[in-house]
Write a structure and sequence with these properties.
This is ArgG. It is a single chain. By secondary structure, this protein is an all-alpha fold. The protein contains 7 helices and no strands.
């Protein structure tokens, strides 16, 4: 009789790190200063002070660290700032993802509106914008917000390096129980063997 191919549970519990949100991910999803300026000029919105936001947040974190320096040890300071910077980076990344979805919806609506045979996408009553225009304006607002949060995140990352002396990296928490996915793979193999 053949030996069962059931995996050993003790070997299935290994730690895989969860990927954290990096500053590079934020930079890929959020508009940079040039794009934010182009959005502001095209839609007639306020031009944000990108460098001011970045430097203010850098000073904020550095001053916070200075005020805590007597009460926190080196490792405690590193952990505390790790969490603070992680929150800023995560917030900016979420805003960048939301901005990307808003741009996609605006593009889709604009493409539909350019089709003359569609009645549902025609301009609204006099004095009201079309649905496509509202989606473009919403995407522009989200772009400016995502850019502002990107600048705040970049400022906190720079402050972390200034205070700790190391480049900030996201905390990677090990996965608690990867065995569930291993069980699913084993079930697939077993069902495949059954035909």
């Amino acid at each position: 009789m053949a030996k069962s191919a059931t995996p050993n549970r003790s070997n299935a519990r290994f730690a895989q790190p969860r990927r954290g949100t990096t500053l590079e991910m934020v930079r890929l999803s959020c508009p940079d200063a040039t794009q934010a300026l182009k959005i502001a000029e095209s839609f007639g919105t306020t031009v944000v002070d990108s460098d001011g936001i970045r430097s203010l947040h850098q000073r904020l974190v550095v001053e916070t660290a200075d005020s805590l320096s007597e009460g926190l040890g080196e490792k405690a300071m590193q952990i505390h700032l790790q969490r603070i910077v992680g929150a800023f980076v995560g917030s900016a990344h979420g805003a960048g993802q939301f901005y990307s979805r808003a741009v996609t919806e605006a593009r889709d609506a604009t493409a539909k509106a350019s089709n003359d045979a569609r009645d549902e996408d025609l301009d609204g009553p006099v004095g009201y914008d079309s649905a496509a225009q509202r989606k473009r304006e919403f995407a522009a607002d989200m772009g400016i917000q995502a850019h502002s949060l990107r600048m705040a995140a970049e400022g906190t990352v720079a402050a972390y390096e200034q205070v700790i002396g190391e480049t900030w990296k996201p905390f990677e928490r090990p996965v608690e129980n990867p065995g569930a996915s291993l069980d699913r793979k084993a079930a697939e193999v077993q069902m495949d063997a059954l035909g």
